[in-house]
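Form P-L/3: holo structure prediction, ligand NDP.
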Amino acid sequence: MSDTYDLLVIGAGSGGVAASRRAAAHGAKVAVVEASRVGGTCVIRGCVPKKLLMYAAQFRDAFHEAAGFGWSLGQPHFEMPRWAAAKAAETDRLEQIYRQMLAGSKVELVEGRACIEGPGRVRVGDRLLQARHLLIASGAQPVRDSIPGIEGCATSDELLDLHVLPASAAVIGSGFIALEFASLLQRLGVRVSLFYRAGLPLRGFDEDLRTRAAAALQAAGIELHPGCVPRAIQHADGQRLLVLDDERVPGFPFVLNATGRRPNTAGLGLETIGITPDARGAIPVDAQLRTSAANVYAIGDVTHRVNLTPVAIAEGRALADSLFGGAPRSVDLSLVASAVFMLPPVATIGPTEAELAASGAKLAVFEADFRPMKQAFIGGTERCYMKLLVDAAGGRVRAAHMIGADAPEIIQSLAVAITAGATKAQFDRTIAMHPTAAEEFVLMREPVRRVG
Ligand code: NDP
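OUTPUT (holo model):
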């Protein structure tokens, strides 16, 4: 049986679904192929369930803080099986919504594994699908071979399906996933040790956030092991043994492998259309999301550039508009806000101070570093840190960095102003909203230093 489509999309994650629906809205005949669950990483085993577990974890802080505000509570107790059941119901509900959205948009869902057989030809089981345009949106998955023996350890995929939490855990890595899961495991009562090869966590983030993130993790009771990753992980008697360079071999009942993600390109049949993935397994694309093969495009994590759900969605819609909407456009990835939902959260938009300094920019650096009202009232130690990087000439705000309660919500709103090119003078003209933490971003009067 053979079917011909204007657009065939491989992967029904956030990017693939967005592209399919937008293309169908422009009148294209579209099919999307999915080998697993509709919704992809974000909905099924990433952003959504992670945040739902983070909400559960945050109650520990809330219970503690409540006492400082006059509340008396019994001994709180977290039951992972109840969370797991509610999470499963919620991801099922969201998957159904995604399926309905596809059907409502007249996008055909083809369930099975896609294998490209040549230009415009994709096999799914016994069906051969033909397409004028092919979009690869197959996402990424955890790297499972970064350290000898790590393949037997859990990744975030398995952790989010746990029904019983371990008493203690080693987390390997210090990127988004490592810090988010280290924070939430610790709040859920797991003793966490974090092993990472750099001196500070969150490589690529502003140094002032990295130092404060490390301090916050430590203050929460997470044991930090900077400059220390296992040479190998051995498995014995239900324990995972970390073989370290200094010959120590600590054992843990649970190890979380948070050493990065790899694009899903293996087994796709890319060689049949002349696409060669790069060293990290990613599909190279140009600004119009074109691959090296004619009429073949790629978006989102499979391209391994800015691995964030909203980027994949924006790229999917831009591509569909370009191909079928008569409105060719590309997505500007030069200013993309992002957040690490650790506790307290980190959020950022724009380059780091070091990156701007290295580019020769002349900057005024503004900072606020304070204990928020809520913490001060209860004698808490958690702080809030905010930084604005401003062009010395012209006063344009180039970047905002924050670690502290509500940082993602605050930076998301600031991202509008910064993307629009707001200047520090415009921040200064903005009347503060009091009492908030966010108001500090419009109350920074004198730079703490000048760069360049
Ligand atoms: P990251 O790239 O953020 O972090 C990977 C970590 O693994 C780094 O600390 C890295 O160390 C370490 N690492 C890599 N290889 C090895 C190795 N061989 N031995 C020891 N350590 C190693 O990847 P994540 O998997 O955490 O997240 C993947 C992407 O998904 C993120 O970059 C982000 O784009 C996205 N994401 C976004 C989230 C959000 O928006 N909140 C949440 C989760 C993921 P080093 O720094 O030294 O290289």
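COMMENT: DSSP finds twelve helices and 22 strands in the chain.
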